[in-house]
From TrEMBL:
Residues 12-221 form the Thiaminase-2/PQQC domain. This is Pyrroloquinoline-quinone synthase. The gene is pqqC. NCBIfam families: PQQ_syn_pqqC. It catalyses: 6-(2-amino-2-carboxyethyl)-7,8-dioxo-1,2,3,4,7,8-hexahydroquinoline-2,4-dicarboxylate + 3 O2 = pyrroloquinoline quinone + 2 H2O2 + 2 H2O + H(+). It comes from Streptomyces ficellus. It comes from the Bacteria. It is an enzyme of class 1 (oxidoreductase). It holds the Pfam family TENA_THI-4. Coiled coil: none annotated. InterPro entries: Haem_Oase-like_multi-hlx, PqqC, PqqC-like, Thiaminase-2/PQQC. Ring cyclization and eight-electron oxidation of 3a-(2-amino-2-carboxyethyl)-4,5-dioxo-4,5,6,7,8,9-hexahydroquinoline-7,9-dicarboxylic-acid to PQQ.
Length: 229
């Protein structure tokens, strides 16, 4: 089978990142409508922290698959975005601040005891996918971020409107991700379009992105179902 043109391939990737994105998940819809209770918002923050803290781990696994200084330098920046260049900077710290702004102290977030089984499995699934699959698929999986700047803008507005009990400085994480997510996804899209040469490779990239949408979706399924009795 002939490969899709660059435009057709990009359009297929964008379609998956839109149609299967977790902004359509009922829990996310309720979050943005302002219908979550404070306990549900806190459950989301606690469980999503498990995802956040594993992002630099999966990015380190991807980094090890890149074979030029330029590619590694670009990917290293993602790890620094999350970990910061020194203590007290970076996205993980900002997520901890979000937790504190919502009344969850950092020891509770860092301890991770309330992370739900389904969330652990979904995050493990993503990390192991990036560990085991070739760079094309691991990078393609990050393309959910094509939809991330939009969801971040909507989320900031929803939090300001409906969850004003959360201190405003807690939203810095989302603000930072608008620019970072846009830049990261543009860069990753360029790599995937360049690397996938055959139709089979293109289809694998699309499947990797669909898998990642499922990871984000199951994360919310687990959070929606809630904790142990
Ligand atoms: O809150 C969200 O909706 C959301 C979604 C995604 C995404 O689409 O994968 C990421 C993030 N946040 C995020 O904060 C983040 O750092 C991030 C990294 C990645 C990735 O796969 O490399 N996705 C996402």
């Amino acid at each position: 089978m002939n490969p899709w043109s660059r435009e057709e391939f990009a359009a297929r990737l964008r379609a998956v990142a839109t149609d299967r994105y977790h902004d359509r998940h009922p829990f996310n819809v309720r979050m943005h409508q302002g219908a979550l209770s404070p306990d549900e918002v806190r459950r989301w923050i606690l469980n999503r922290f498990h995802y956040q803290r594993h992002i630099p781990v999966k990015d380190a696994l991807i980094l090890a698959k890149l074979d030029t200084p330029a590619l590694r330098r670009a990917w290293l920046r993602r790890i620094q975005d999350h970990d910061g260049e020194k203590d007290g900077g970076g996205g993980i710290e900002r997520w901890l601040r979000l937790g504190e702004a919502a009344g969850i102290d950092r020891a509770r977030l860092e301890g991770g005891e309330e992370v739900l089984p389904g969330v652990r499995l979904a995050v493990d699934g993503y990390v192991n996918f990036c560990r085991l699959r070739p760079r094309l698929e691991a990078v393609a999986a990050s393309l959910t971020e094509l939809s991330a700047p939009t969801i971040m803008r909507t989320r900031i507005q929803a939090f300001e409107t409906h969850y004003s009990w959360i201190e405003a400085d807690g939203l810095a994480y989302f603000q930072g991700r608008i620019g970072q997510g846009g830049r990261d996804s543009t860069e990753a899209l360029g790599l995937v379009l360049d690397w996938a040469r055959t139709r089979e490779e293109q289809e694998r990239a699309v499947a990797a992105l669909a898998f990642k949408c499922d990871v984000l979706w199951s994360l919310l399924d687990a959070i929606e179902a809630g904790g142990r009795p």
